[in-house]
Amino acid sequence: MKTNYQQSTGKKSLIITSFALFSLFFGAGNLVLPPLLGFRAGDLWWLVTLGFCISGVLIPILGIIAHAKLQGTLFDFAKKVSPTFSVVYCYLIYAIAIALPSPRTASVTHEMAIQPFWDSPSLLTSLIYFMLVFVFVLNRSKVLDALGKLLTPGILIILFIMMATAVFALDFDFVPSAMGQAFSSGILEGYQTFDAIGAVVVGAVIIISINLKEKYASFEEKRRLIGKAGLWAGIGLLLVYGGLILTGALFGDAFDADISRTALLRGISTKTLGQTANILLSILVSLACFTTAVGIVTGTSDFIKGRLNDSISAYRITAFLGCLLGVLVGQFDVGYIITVAVPSLMFIYPITIILILLNVVPEKWGSPKVFQRVIGVTILFSIPDFLGSIGFGQQISPYVDWVPLSQHQMGWVLPALVAFIASNIINGKETAASS
Sign of torsion, CA 275 332 296 412? Predict the structure, then answer.
């Protein structure tokens, strides 16, 4: 006889969870990143795709798997280092989220849907945009959630038509790549998706949803469901990102070399779909950007509210300040916001990636001491990449050139791996000695 859980799950449950995960990561801002990456990569598009999907697909999906293992909140991701560190980490994550990806959605909206049709300043766009965001955050409208469920399928249909048109209509003649470090460039560009941060911030929403819907499921059954859904969501992201990078590479000689990200996406959609479909894509992307901004501001406000004894005033003040910051930053163009984001990402992303990986490994390999040592080493070796991103590369170069992968802005990778292995060896010896 089948259990209640078995009766309530199956293909439908897997499809719903997979689509929810995909929608969680597939933000409209991410659309503007892959085409330009492929455009610049030329014949090395496959190599940048591999790098981009490691940081933009694999790591975020592992973040969801880590959430399934923890069954907790963002605080639980870093509490093994120390409660104080975890609180500081949470504040940093939410500060970055509300200061960069949220305003970027307004900038994408202006460049995709306003600038091509109306001669209005970006400040006006961001002002109206975040006034509406503030209204929706205060009212938590269910209409927005329903709208969000319709936007992703609509965008995907248009994108797949655009990519298919490019793949089947154009010759596979690629411009020679001018990238010297295609693989690492793909990884670093994947940072800009903010998907690893998204995985640790809102991944718990998926867990809560599954717990509510699958009340009779055991811990292992839910883990299997999330694992399969993560695999299918990852395949979907891989197809979309890979297709967009390939499409950008196929148009390698069709646009000016210094074209912006939004202009390239708009130009490709016009050439493959025509002007009418391009307008529809612009509208859909703008609406999807809006839902993303509302989600970020709401999530940040909820966090501050929770830290201050569920204060409604704290929620409203945080929402207002988040929208005010969105107006100020959102008036800048997408390229500028992406450039400004680099230093913070060079510091916080390695920590986030390591926290995800440490929470995925078996418990015996992820003791508090391992967390503390590996995160400490990661922070230490992320500092040169951070300093390099703010203009001190030449000054620190003589001191860090000996670190493997430092020339690729990933000098933290091997030291973190060595710290992980060494910490587990030390722990093993200490355990053996105590017994």
Answer: positive
Of 336, 357, 378, the one marking the end of a domain is 357
**Any idea of the CA torsion for 173, 177, 182, 186, to the nearest 10 degrees?**
-60
Q: Are 53 and 242 in contact (CB under 8 A)?
A: yes
Is there a single domain that holds both residue 333 and residue 372?
no
Helix ranges (H only) for 251-333 are 261-273, 275-307, 312-330
In b/e form, how buried is each residue of 66-102, taking b as 16+ CB within 10 angstroms?
A: bbbbbeebbebbbbbbeeebbeebbebbbebbbbbbb
- Between the CA of residue 290 and those of 64, 132, 228, what are the distances in Å? 24, 9, 29
Burial zone of 203 (CB within 10 Å; 0-12 exposed, 13-18 middle, 19+ buried):
buried
DSSP code of residue 366: -
**Chosen domain end from 316, 333, 357:** 357
81 secondary structure, DSSP code: T
Domain range for 421 is 361-435
- The reply to whether 353 and 392 lie within a common domain is no
Query: What are 1's two structure tokens?
Result: 């006889």
Q: Mind listing the pLDDT tens digit of every residue in the chain (435 residues)?
A: 444 445 444 677 777 777 777 877 777 667 888 999 999 988 899 999 999 999 988 998 898 888 878 767 788 888 999 999 999 999 999 999 899 889 998 998 998 888 888 888 989 999 999 999 999 888 866 655 665 666 777 778 888 888 888 888 887 888 888 777 888 889 988 888 888 888 887 666 666 666 666 666 666 777 777 778 888 888 888 998 999 999 999 988 888 888 888 888 888 888 888 877 778 878 878 887 888 888 888 888 888 888 888 889 999 999 999 999 999 998 898 888 888 888 888 889 999 999 999 999 888 888 889 999 999 999 999 888 888 888 776 777 777 777 777 777 888 999 999 999 999 988 877 777 776
Helix intervals (H) in 100-194: 101-109, 122-139, 142-169, 182-191
Same domain, residue pair 391 and 343:
no
Same domain, 312 and 430: no
Contacts for 48 with CB less than 8 Å, ≥ 6 apart: 37, 38, 41, 179, 182, 183, 185, 186, 189, 245
> Longest C-alpha distance within the chain, in Å?
75
Q: How many domains does the chain have?
A: 2
- What tokens were used for 392? 């001190």
